[in-house]
Each structure stands twice: as C-alpha cells, then as structure tokens.
Write a structure and sequence with these properties.
By secondary structure, the chain is an all-alpha fold. The protein is built from eight helices and no strands. It holds the Pfam family BPD_transp_1.
C-alpha cells in the first residue's frame, strides 16, 4: 500500500483529471438517457400495446455484453469519447424506462380520476399528478443507471476513451498494482458516492410526496 499512496501523492492531479473525464462521460450518458428514457416510459405506460416492445428492446441492449457493444459502436462511430458516451447512454436506458413505466402504472387510479373530476386535461394529469407521484421510481432508475454507467465506463480506454479505466488497464499491462488500485479504488468510490447521493435524493422526493 505504500507504493499506492506514493503513486497517488505524485500523480493526484492526473488522477483528478481522469476522474473528471469519468464523471463527465457518465453525466452526459445519464442526461441523454433521461431525455429519451422518460418519454419512452411515459409512452409505455399510456399505450400498453407498446409497453412490451419498448421494454423488450431496452432489455436486449441491457443484456448485450458491454465490451461487445462498445466494439460494435466503435465500428460505426470510431474511437473516443463520443462512442463511450453513446454506449453508456444505451446501458442507462432500461433502468430509466422501466422505472418511469412502473412509477406511472403504480399511481392510484382514484387520484387520476379525482384529477379528471376537477377538469384536468391528460397533459395536466401527467405533469401535475402522475409524474410527480412517480418521481421516487424515476430516481431509482437514475440511481441504478448511474452505478451501471460508472462501472461500464472503466472499459472506455479499450476503445480510445479516457477515465479511471486508463489507470486500471495501465496497471494490468505494466504489472503495476499501484496504478491498478489508483484507477479501481476511485471508480468504486464514485459508484458508492453516486448510490448514496441519489439514494438520499430518492428518499427526500419520496418523503415530499408522502407529506
């Protein structure tokens, strides 16, 4: 461990840069997944005939081996940052679509009927009643997607990406445990912190709706 702490002490600026790149890739992927996934979850909830198709396609992407997926994307989009973000976006879709769908379908029909009774339109019901009540489920999807994306992002260097995975693979190739740990430990900490932070947000949203 002395070698690890010495290496971190000598290269902490570089490691911060790698962590920033790692976080940036994940944040962009989650943002794009929200922009696409939440509307798809809404469509699945409001048009039951499309639910199996939408969830089925998203599930196919999710179970596809991550390295194989990134290699296929690399063939189309080339090496680098963009390909990694697209891959992370695809892996983040299922948790967000599924949890948006589940959250909306779990809304008490009596609440929906009460909204209709006071003259709300379908869009008003969706944005003022149903989506707010489904937000704890949506945050669960974001939480799961973030942890998955942080893990998958560690293989980004294999297709020309950056991030903490660069230190992991450098450590493996050079038989240097200090570099390996300098990439693996911060990546694991990022996943834990993301899970804790988003878990707190999820509980706050849930408590707010309960109140």
């Amino acid at each position: 461990m002395d070698m690890f702490f010495r290496y971190v002490g000598e290269n902490w600026i570089y490691l911060i840069e790698l962590a920033y790149q790692h976080i940036l890739m994940v944040l962009l992927a989650i943002l794009f997944a929200l922009v696409v996934g939440v509307p798809l979850g809404i469509v699945a909830a409001r048009v039951p005939k499309l639910a199996n198709l939408i969830l089925g396609l998203a599930n196919v992407v999710q179970v596809f081996p991550s390295l194989a997926m990134l290699v296929l994307l690399m063939i189309v989009f080339g090496l680098g940052f963009t390909t990694v973000v697209i891959g992370l976006f695809l892996y983040s879709l299922l948790p967000i679509i599924r949890n948006t769908y589940v959250g909306l379908t779990q809304v008490d029909p009596a609440i929906t009927e009460a909204g209709r009774g006071v003259g709300m339109s379908s869009l008003q019901l969706l944005f003022r009643v149903q989506l707010p009540l489904a937000m704890p489920f949506v945050f669960t999807g974001i939480r799961v997607a973030a942890v998955i994306a942080i893990g998958v992002a560690t293989i980004a260097p294999l297709i020309g990406g950056e991030g903490l995975g660069r230190e992991v693979y450098s450590g493996i190739n050079m038989d240097n445990p200090a570099r390996l740990y300098a990439g693996a430990i911060p990546a694991a900490l990022l996943a834990l912190l993301a899970d804790l932070f988003l878990g707190k947000l999820q509980r706050r949203v849930g408590q707010g709706k309960a109140a």
